[in-house]
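Q: Here's a chain of 422 amino acids. Please give me its 3D structure as tokens.
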Amino acid sequence: MIKKEMIAMLLAGGQGSRLGVLTSKVAKPAVSFGGKYRIIDFPLSNCINSGVDTVGVLTQYQPLRLNSHIGIGIPWDLDRNIGGVTVLPPYEKSVNSEWYTGTANAIYQNLDYMESYHPDYVLILSGDHIYKMDYEAMLEFHKSKGADVTIAVMPVPIEEAGRFGIMITDGDARITEFEEKPKHPRSNLASMGIYIFNWKTLKEALVAMADQPALDFGKHVIPYCRDAGSPLYAYEFNGYWKDVGTLSSYWEANMELIDLVPEFNLYEEYWKIYTKSEILPPQYLSADSEVERCIIGEGSAIYGKVYNSVIGCGVTIGKGTVVRDSIIMNQTSIGESCEVNKAIIAENVQIGDKVRLGIGEEIDNEVAPHIYDQGLVTIGEKSVIPDGVSVGKNTVVFGVTSKEDYEGSYLAGGKSLIKAGE
């Protein structure tokens, strides 16, 4: 009989709608990050660094790129005969087929997978956060407290606490109450969406609550455990943790990687971040190029000037082009004599010559001001931008565009240019 002390279930089905066009064709955990990684690499690397070698990855929305990225788990040393990484999409059942409707419903639909490992503990993770965390230390805490459920929490400024699920604890870290996005928070310990359950406790709660629509951990499973008298504890985490769910937080997290003393260090020997790497030649910097405070991915060729930016793999930046404060993802090509300011440019984009991005005044985006903000220019994957056009701030471009799409060769600040069918 196979027996694993702790297995991980990684929720990676999210659409990530607040990332706008970046996630229109790809699940949020598969979005590029930090030049050569994808967001899901961080929780997967945490698993293998913490000695958790059995991981079920629950996918749903646009899973293709995520599935091919994970494959059989070789980069994370998760290609195991017993355990390893398994991609778990929703599947056809003989009675009826259903999508995962909530975080806990997704776990409930995979009870058989978990049961096959006879685990003592199940670790529930989200696939869209950037952090390094030793889950083994959290498990030790869970055991030492005799907990049925341990929730990882993080202290946040009290004025921001209303945005999170907040835990109220006693002197022994036992959770006495919790409040979902409270107007007047009584604690600053925010749930990180990372849970360790005793397998028996989790199974019982999922089966008991299975009929709830959109079965969710925060709304249903954890309140059920508390009401059943299960001891719940809060495990405090004080490291770097970033939810990259919005374009501005995604941009900030990338920029923090190139701080002179980065708060989040990708280069630590003892806690490596693993990823699937393409076989690419080294970077090339021409004699005229200038690069300051950047991450430059393998296979990129820089002929222009790049400052304070994160450049992916296989990117070309043409002669006379100046890129500042931007994220440029894999296999994108920028022509000559361009100006790029505070842009997020997705994968496989083609930008012509003499293009100017991120100019002029900041004007609220007319379609989605809550998504396209902070003066960013966002360009969706496989987009084409013709020679000689200018694009303002808080804008979005997605699709194969031509000169005629830009009135007077200009897309004004706050405008959205999304071609039908994209």
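Q: Can you summarize the key feature?
A: The chain is about 15% helix and 30% strand.
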